[in-house]
């Protein structure tokens, strides 16, 4: 794509994508398996979520066919990449003006979904002169009219506005007036007039939520001309010039104006790192357990890619502590503890009481108490801030983690060589991603629902996919080193043992498993029932794993790796 010709629209109008373009023969399907369709979607989705709202509608269209993409679908993805290549200099810039929350919403009746004939919802919210939140997605029901589609879209947008209002209030940015603009006069009338309408009596009750918000004056629903509605680009194709000239997006060609913020961000990162380093020193774990990996800086560096937003500093500090505790416990199970000691530690975690500490060897007591205090402290903050007792859920993830560690310890001591399937069924939990995502779920979910909490901790597909990619990427970079130091065979070795394959063949197979799991991850991101922030960190955990363990090397454990150089550049070296 480096030499491809740039295009001026995110998706050409000639693309009429449907399932009809999917492969119809085994040969076509085999040929498409060689195409990195899911990986490409994941990459452009990352750009769309962070800084490129202009491709939201196009990404929404092509991502529907990840399960069975055809050649025409792949051509559409390449078209988006050509568009991005021609607009790499464009960035979102905040000008400090118009510091009032404003939302724009639009819907397109059934034209983007040739298979299911569902309508598309698109909305965008602005603050400080540019976009801060946006989406383009299919509605869950089939609308019977344009009015109904616009009305459903307005309700979905209103829920996002309520959340943004609450978030701004927490930051001390009181928002005196929040306006939601729609170009559908009939949808506005329907929201403001709660009288019975025979044409809308079939509309689901939840979509009438906007009536309550309008009646209570929580938001104002107002009319905007269709030609002036920036949300229009989230439901249909627009030329770049139309988009750039819109007051919503004020893209600047002066990238240095945005990059001038880097020293401030670096200073924030260093302050957070100091706080976590102070905590790590106070735990005394390195002094009491000299065999563990002392990697607090690397643990923090992980978090900058998983929890990216500046306002989530507390979450980065929390995640650094989790990374350090997971690494410590992993080293106890892998290289130091006897099988009898590991069984005692596992049982202590299951009981989860302070009396359990007396049953442990001296070196384990400090680790147990550090974990016990940390989890209870995080549970306290969740209960205080959100009125939800998260400790039973958090505790479950740590119990599941040490139980999988114990299974692997038994494998090692008995000389058992698991099959690849047996290994992965255990190892996607033993990698440590489950407690990470559990803690982040409670921090990044504004209004915690018991059902959602249960779903996450029954290990919803988005959690399982994130942890599986983390595990397989880790195996690709560390498996040989870990086996040499006394660990169980990893996925690469399991495949080699089971199928008498070469290391090269095994690595190719593991890489194909990563690509297949990304298809699940991308699908779950589009249809996630959880908060946008939680879905984002699930994907980021997988992305960061592939970055840390790139080129089949251990960026976490190696002191002079490429990743280590990137770490120093981000955290310590001055920007010029």
Structural notes for this entry:
- Strands 3-2-1-4-5 form a five-stranded mixed beta sheet.
- It is globular.
- Strand 2 (120-127) and strand 3 (130-138) form a beta hairpin.
- Helix 2 (37-50) runs parallel beside helix 4 (71-85).
- The chain is built from 24 helices and five strands.
- The chain has helices at 26-32, 37-50, 56-62, 71-85, 146-170, 185-192, 209-215, 240-245, 256-259, 262-283, 285-288, 296-306, 313-336, 339-351, 362-386, 391-414, 420-430, 433-444, 450-457, 461-484, 491-499, 503-526, 532-548, 562-571; strands at residues 102-108, 120-127, 130-138, 179-182, 220-223.
- With 576 residues, the chain is mostly helical.
């Amino acid at each position: 794509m480096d030499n491809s010709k740039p295009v001026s629209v995110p998706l050409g109008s000639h693309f009429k994508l449907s399932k009809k373009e999917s492969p119809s023969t085994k040969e076509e399907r085999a040929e498409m398996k060689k195409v990195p369709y899911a990986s490409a979607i994941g990459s452009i989705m990352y750009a769309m979520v962070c800084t490129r709202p202009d491709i939201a509608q196009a990404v929404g269209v092509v991502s529907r066919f990840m399960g069975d993409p055809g050649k025409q679908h792949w051509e559409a993805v390449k078209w988006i990449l050509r568009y991005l290549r021609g607009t790499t200099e464009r960035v979102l810039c905040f000008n400090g003006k118009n510091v009032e929350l404003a939302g724009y919403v639009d819907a397109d009746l059934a034209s983007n979904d040739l298979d299911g004939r569902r309508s598309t919802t698109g909305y965008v919210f602005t603050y400080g002169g540019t976009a801060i939140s946006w989406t383009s997605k299919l509605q869950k029901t089939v609308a019977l009219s344009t009015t109904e589609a616009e009305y459903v879209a307005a309700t979905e947008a209103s829920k996002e506005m309520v959340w943004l209002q609450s978030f701004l209030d927490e930051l001390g940015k009181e928002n005196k007036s929040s306006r939601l603009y729609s170009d559908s006069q009939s949808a506005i009338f329907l929201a403001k007039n709660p009288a019975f309408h025979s044409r809308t009596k079939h509309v689901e009750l939840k979509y009438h939520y906007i009536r309550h918000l309008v009646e209570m004056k929580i938001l104002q629903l107002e009319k905007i001309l269709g030609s002036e509605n920036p949300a229009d680009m989230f439901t249909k194709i627009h030329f770049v010039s139309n988009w750039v000239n819109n007051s919503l997006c004020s893209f600047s060609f002066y990238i240095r104006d945005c990059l001038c913020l880097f020293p401030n961000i670096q200073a924030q990162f260093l302050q957070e790192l100091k706080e976590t380093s102070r905590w790590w020193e106070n735990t005394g774990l390195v002094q009491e357990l000299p065999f563990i990996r002392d990697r607090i800086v690397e643990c923090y560096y992980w978090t900058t890619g998983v929890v990216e937003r500046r306002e989530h500093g507390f979450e980065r500090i929390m995640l650094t502590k989790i990374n350090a505790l997971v690494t410590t416990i992993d080293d106890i199970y892998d290289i130091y503890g006897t099988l009898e000691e590991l069984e005692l530690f596992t049982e202590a975690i299951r009981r989860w009481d302070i009396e359990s500490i007396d049953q442990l060897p001296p070196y384990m007591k400090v680790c147990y108490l550090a974990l016990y205090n940390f989890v209870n402290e995080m549970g306290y903050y969740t209960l205080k801030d959100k009125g939800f007792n998260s400790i039973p859920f958090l505790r479950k993830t740590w119990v599941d983690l040490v139980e999988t560690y114990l299974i692997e310890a038994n494998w090692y001591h008995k000389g058992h060589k698991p099959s690849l399937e047996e290994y992965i069924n255990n190892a996607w939990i033993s990698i440590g991603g489950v407690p990470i995502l559990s803690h982040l779920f409670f921090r990044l979910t504004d209004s915690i629902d018991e059902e959602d909490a249960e779903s996450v901790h029954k290990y919803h597909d988005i959690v399982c996919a994130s942890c599986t990619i983390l595990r397989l990427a880790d195996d690709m970079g560390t498996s040989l080193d870990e086996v040499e130091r006394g660990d169980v065979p990893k996925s690469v070795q399991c495949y080699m043992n089971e199928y008498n394959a070469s290391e090269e063949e095994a690595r190719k197979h593991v890489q194909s498993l990563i690509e297949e799991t990304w298809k699940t991850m991308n699908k779950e991101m589009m249809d996630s029932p959880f908060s946008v922030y939680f879905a984002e960190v699930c994907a980021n955990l997988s992305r960061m794993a592939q970055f840390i363990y790139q080129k089949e090397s251990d960026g976490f454990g190696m002191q002079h790796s490429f990743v280590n150089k990137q770490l120093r550049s981000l955290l310590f070296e001055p920007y010029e």
